[in-house]
């Protein structure tokens, strides 16, 4: 009986989608938008905020009258930081709830887990977090940064402005740090840095005793050359890491640490005064001054009823992704996935850093890169910014196996891993 | 003849349970395959996948119950055997992808390509053959259980000490599998499977078959467990549970009994894990997390420890609750789950099955009183 | 006061040119305005101009700039220095130093600096403050000049060495001078002498200076001497490294001990497999957060005492919750130890989610009081105060607990009840009450651990999850029911872990420790210190 009723709503929804043109849907059922972020378990710490942002964006859009004359309705589920559950919930959102688009995932493994589901059921996923690249799916829009939109500019900054010659690449042992460090290692070597001036260190998830590693960094840093740490340490482990750094008296002036996973949210849990001057590279900082950002911060703090609530980069990515999706739905005149996916490419919306971001044919967006220094109040001061927007390199040119690959989802290529040497789609194209 | 023997060895309620499990495993997939999508009786594929997943969990719960409920070994590491079976299956499925990976490398899976592996690690050889993988699915968890059990039971590690070392084992395995240097995909594990035995894992027919296979395996496990428990051997097992020292004094080789049932149970968990992976589409080190093992114990407790139907009911109940509540009450479902565990231990020490027999026995006593 | 005295010091050191008061102010005005305009490159130039001007106000202005306390007031474009004063900033005019009311961040534009500028300022202020009357400031100045040798500071250093009376600071000045000499174009003899001074300093900073000398010196003799000096420093440091690993091990062990000691009571002596133990630790950490939050908003001057205030409260909160758990759930489950595992696991889910609902899922900030920040040197060993206090604290808690169990009536009852319940009951001990108090004590100690762990880890709903497995390992390894076993177990596991880590890496080190525990339990199935007795279960 339950199955039957689910089925009926499904049939009705399908009928509406197929039969009617945009305006005829004015009184139609609300458009469902899936929110697939962990609200419990280890990732709740980061992902819950993104769920709240989505609820706020949907509420605001509904105040403006929704889209295509229909209201939006958020369908929130809790995948509980459990990767198989991510796939199950994604399936539930697409098949049972028939959502028009899903905003979700944080970790790479959760994205990898849902990817086959979205490809099979032809759904749309907006993925808002910086990641390792090496992927481009027709059904996913990557609104976070690829390595070249975060890591490489940060290294350039340290090399040129702080004259860093020795590098510690420290990360949590999973795919994002591994890939990013591989890319950085290749990049640094290309810039003439010798192997002995690079130290690579991996730690497990949630590592909390950093004494030995901090001592090792100190040791590596006393070689008479300016040393910097490039940190791809994942969320939870950062607080004890920075606390240990602060206690051990490693100042940013001596050994600066540039992090790719530490934003305003993570800093909210630490006393940042001892960390003054350590760096982070992102595409957005809460401290960026422009009217659209100020309006967003205000709306966010009102929505969460907390005047101290901070904003961060993945939140901005969701703002951009959501606005792009709205524009694409308007352009396509329907929420039909195929039409929206085609309409997405080329959509340009304002970002919160004071410029515009565009959806490129590789399903990644253009972004400015900002380098910020941690301040005593838990915010970042932008100390450097790329002059223009950076286009994502989803396949890194610094990795031997991906340097010949490109993604282009426009017709006629329509391929996520086109090999420019063999001229064929599908990796090596043999 | 053996089947008949086994069949007669089971109690009537267990026979019903086996038939019911088989019925689920046959009818639902058939409804999915034969009914048109518009029919009210049509079962969508995602329901099949859920049922398939529950069936695998039920098999795991049964395996836990066999050692805990009937032999008194509280294992907090059974998810490790489940995950090992899953990894063996995952390796087979990865090899089946062939050159359809992102980089189009015919030999190496994607994660090896971008970690710059030049050739396949030695332990990946053979996994392109299903028969080899199938042997490994049983062999790897069994050998681990044999090694651990051999040492632990011989040195008479019992009670919480045993629980804690099984937990240490699964925790150590989780940390090890998280390492990218292991060559098993690190945190991302294995995903994006394409084929199993030449059939696409994404086709509804394959899903229906896998769901049926899971039901069949669970039914077979129930029959095997009933045979083990019902035999003389099983009686000795229960005696070991209730008074281990006394059994030892009576001259029984307690370790042998424990070891046999522990290894059997690990093999069952491994097979369940192998069926689980193609249905959920991912295997990853977090399957080893100690919390998963504890949860498996909880399914048994909720359903009813020391019965064979209990774990099956418990696994279905808790996991269906999880599926439903994470969708319906995403903010508060942990309260509900936590409260369920507390309530069950406090008020239903024998689980749901115990509740049923309690009600029934109360009914009979009342009836008995009437004529008097 | 301090700056007034500084004025005399600086003017004598740099021989300030006398100019009329009005022109003086006007000139400083432009210099300061230059600081606030243009990009970081312009700002660097403005800083060196300000330093070269020899103005007495230069040091405080530059210090404010480095600390991010220099602002431009939006209303009238006056450059002001803002110091935190409650929720507002107390302002003073940068040029004159006169008070200029108060303001909020929103009314001001902060003058931004980056790491490079901070380094430049530090070097500049370093040479400006070599004559400061405050010994600590002079020492810092010497340190920063040592780390960032600036050949132009040589004159100032010589003057400072001549004037210095404190022998230790004089040594620091001489070391700084040696580092400066190595970067200058001094003669070969001077450099060789300087190398010896730096070698004798013998720490990591010295090694860094020596390495830089090896890289930059052209004279082969100096180069060879620098290489030899670096080798000798390295040798000294290698010896200290072993000591360092022991210290790190003890420190990790103390954390494990703190986390496990409460469990040693609830699990070890009462036999409750308490999966909610980690959540008791978490409650202690959140109590600390709440206490600090109240102190921050209402009694800011008490901040350094916040942890001391939090300790009894955390003990009470976790203890009361513990007693409630015992009365509400555990007491129905005695004799069914495995069932306690299930119930407390459910409870831990509920507690985690409750904290998540009340405090939000993200990390909460717990600050370090002054006495727990920073580090000191013991030979070449850097010991951070935070870690030191945690070691001391864990031993204190342990000792107190032993005393409570051995010397108080409650301790006697507890031991009696856990050893022989029916007999204790027959002797008139109210066993249910003792059970509740024992569980409360164990939980309360977990709460105390939470106060300490809030200093080194995330204060988040997941805090307890990170420690629960380690805690069980420690208790089981040490021997269930034996508190000394827990102490020895925690320290041993900490030290083993820290000696493995440099060779095997953090992950593999931890795996090896776990395998070691599994194998150890096979050898001694009752842990390190098994309770002796004739009972066969």
Q: Structural class of the helix and strand makeup of chain C?
A: alpha+beta
Pick out the low-confidence regions of chain B: 367-372
- Please name the CATH architecture of the largest domain in chain C: Orthogonal Bundle
Straight-line N-to-C gap of chain B: 46 Å
- SS field, number of helical segments of chain C: 21
Give the tally of β-strands of chain B.
4
Order of strands in the sheet with most strands of chain C: 4-3-2-1-5
What number of structural domains do the residues of chain C give?
3
Low-confidence parts of chain C: 1-23
Oligomer: heterotrimer
Number of DSSP helical runs of chain B: 15
Helix content of chain B: over 70%
Radius of gyration of chain C: 30 Å
Q: Largest interface: which pair?
A: A-C, 61 and 67 residues
**What is the global morphology of chain B?**
globular
What does this structure look like?
The complex is a heterotrimer of chains A (430), B (372) and C (537). Chain A has 430 residues and is of the alpha/beta class. Chain A folds into three domains: 2-145 and 291-366, Rossmann fold (3-Layer(aba) Sandwich), CATH 3.40.50.2300; 148-288 and 371-385, Rossmann fold (3-Layer(aba) Sandwich); 400-430, no CATH class. Chain A has helices spanning 2-19, 44-63, 83-96, 108-121, 151-161, 175-190, 211-221, 235-247, 264-267, 291-303, 313-332, 337-344; strands at 31-36, 72-77, 101-104, 125-127, 140-142, 166-172, 198-203, 227-232, 257-259, 279-282, 348-350, 356-358, 370-374, 380-385, 405-408, 415-419, 424-425. A seven-stranded mixed beta sheet of chain A has the order 7-6-8-9-10-13-14, sandwiched between helices. A five-stranded parallel beta sheet of chain A has the order 2-1-3-4-5, with helices on both faces. In chain A, strands 15-16-17 form a three-stranded antiparallel beta sheet, with no helix packed on it. Mean pLDDT of chain A is 88; it is low at 1-26. Chain B has one domain (2-369). In chain B, a hairpin with a 2-residue loop joins strand 2 (195-196) and strand 3. Chain B contains 15 helices and four strands. Chain B is mainly alpha-helical and 372 residues long. In chain B, the strands form two sheets. In chain B, strands 1-4 form a two-stranded antiparallel sheet. In chain B, strands 2-3 form a two-stranded antiparallel sheet. With 537 residues, chain C is of the alpha+beta class. Chain C is built from 21 helices and seven strands. Chain C folds into three domains: 2-118, no CATH class; 133-218, no CATH class; 240-523, ABC transporter involved in vitamin B12 uptake, BtuC, CATH 1.10.3470. The model of chain C is unreliable at 1-23 (pLDDT under 50). Chains A and C meet through helix 2, strand 7, helix 7, helix 8 and strand 14 of A and helix 5, helix 10, helix 11, helix 14 and helix 15 of C. Chain A: Pfam families: Peripla_BP_5. Chain A: This is ABC transporter substrate-binding protein. Chain A: Residues 1-26 form the signal peptide.
